[in-house]
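# nightly structure sweep
# worker-07 picked up a monomer target from the shared queue
# config: single-sequence mode, recycle default, output format = structure tokens
# input follows
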Amino acid sequence: MSVQTLARDYPWTTGPLIVGAPMYPFSLSPLATAVSLSGGLGFIAAGTTTSTLPAELSRAAELLNRPPASTLPLPIGIGFINWGADLDSAIEVIRDFVPAAVWLFAPKQIGDLAVWAERVREAAGGRTKVWVQIGSVKQALEVAELCKPDVIVVQGADAGGHGLAGAAGIISLLPEVSDALTRTGHTHIPLIAAGGLTTSRTLAAALCLGASGCALGTRFLACHEANIPPGYLNTVLSTTDGGTSTVRTQVFDNLCGLPWPSEYDGRGIRNRSFADAEKGMGIEENQRLGEKEGGRGPEGRTIEWVGTGVGLVTEVKGAGEIVEEVRGGVKGVLEETMGRF
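# output follows
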């Protein structure tokens, strides 16, 4: 049923659904529209600000050749980091542009999601669907009851960027979330897997675990449409063994002075700033060295968010090519797997 729900709500898409995760500041209108034009669903990352959203959404409408008088939802989504995003400003943008979906994540308190969900649905007359990202079974059950999400994004610990501290990996988290939602009567909510997914093989695994599609983040950092500095891109392409070359920590947020709620942390390249923090260097001295020395990769001090799947990202391609490659290879992966036994 959940697969049919996605096909109904996003009729331009082809299953299994490939989602371009809202990575701030990398996922802007060129990347989001390229994903959607290839039969996926791309998200523009608003992060904690709405100041550039009107311009980005106007650009997206142009790239999608959207007729000015169209009353259909814009076939892309917007991702908000809820602890910092202004609800009233966000609602104004949603009312003006009516995106197909809004991705909610990291509220100051879980009840805030219910307020956001209600306001989004009112502003768009139900045309904008509400997605909520979770990182635990407890969160999944809470949001299912509180805000009746149209989609739940299940993010495992392998994800780059921010997520729930202490989350399980997707291989155990996703089926347990699926089972818990089934027991409580929420089987109608589609689950989108996130965290470490980069290839057809990882998508096939997620589908077997109960997902109706997957969200790609790190994989889309290495695409022509990503808003990524060249040095950062070089780090993505050169990094291997993602489990040991990245780290999940609150150190990077402390160095940036970002007021993330204490239950969240972020995964990035294990670099000199992290190593010095682990040795006891104070934040101010670490910040001073970061500003003075900079540098990228493990020997640098610049924070670079990537997931453990980074070692599987070896070349730059168009976002549409990535969507088609990951989606198109799933059937062959499953057939080859079954053929072994």
